[in-house]
């Protein structure tokens, strides 16, 4: 497990890069189910390989180990832990933010992959690698079936 703190946003964006392409790749297939489940039920679903017993999040359409098609959905819960995090001090146009935004890669127990999302209800000095967090969802009426239906992840302790 990597414990280094990534301070350069570009490095973090590059590191989970294959994850982002997975999002795009699976959006019409596994992704559709994934996001509709967030919208309807506030649940995070992973895709499980029956042969390898590996659970992937975000869900994929086939297993990276044995290339079997993934058909089984598992509820991975809404609680994970901070695997790594980084702070953004400027917005996408380079304008300085009033408050830095903290982005983290959230990992879930016994799940391969993870979600990159914002951290909330916590000040940067209190954030640490391995910190347990849980997803905070928007009210159901405001959910649109995308990753922003999760407002952020907040510490559970
Ligand atoms: Zn497999």
Give me the side-by-side strand order of the main sheet.
Answer: 7-5-4-8-9
| Oligomer classification | single chain
SS elements, strand count: 9
CATH architecture field: Beta Barrel
Tally of individual helices? 3
How would you describe this structure to a colleague?
The longest helix has 12 residues, at 30-41. By secondary structure, the chain is of the alpha+beta class. A five-stranded antiparallel β-sheet has the order 7-5-4-8-9, with no helix packed on it. Strands 3-1-2-6 form a four-stranded mixed β-sheet, covered by helices on one side. It contains three helices and nine strands, in the order H-H-H-E-E-E-E-E-E-E-E-E. The protein has one domain: OB fold (Dihydrolipoamide Acetyltransferase, E2P) (Beta Barrel).
Brief summary:
By secondary structure, this protein is of the alpha+beta class. The protein has 3 helices and 9 strands; from the N terminus they run αααβββββββββ.
Search tags:
157 residues, four-stranded mixed beta sheet, alpha+beta, binds zinc ion, OB fold (Dihydrolipoamide Acetyltransferase, E2P), five-stranded antiparallel beta sheet, globular
């Amino acid at each position: 497990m990597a414990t280094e703190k990534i301070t350069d946003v570009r490095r973090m964006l590059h590191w989970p890069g294959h994850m982002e392409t997975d999002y795009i790749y699976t959006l019409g297939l596994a992704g559709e189910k994934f996001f509709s489940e967030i919208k309807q039920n506030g649940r995070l679903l992973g895709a499980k390989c029956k042969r390898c017993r590996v659970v992937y999040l975000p869900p994929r359409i086939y297993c990276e180990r044995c290339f079997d098609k993934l058909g089984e959905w598992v509820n991975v819960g809404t609680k994970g832990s901070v695997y790594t995090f980084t702070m953004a001090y400027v917005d996408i146009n380079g304008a300085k933010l009033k408050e830095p935004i903290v982005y983290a890669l959230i990992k879930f127990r016994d799940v391969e992959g993870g979600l990159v999302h914002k951290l909330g209800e916590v000040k940067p000095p209190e954030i640490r690698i391995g910190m347990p967090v849980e997803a905070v969802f928007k009210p159901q009426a405001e959910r649109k079936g995308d990753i922003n239906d999760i407002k952020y992840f907040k510490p559970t302790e």
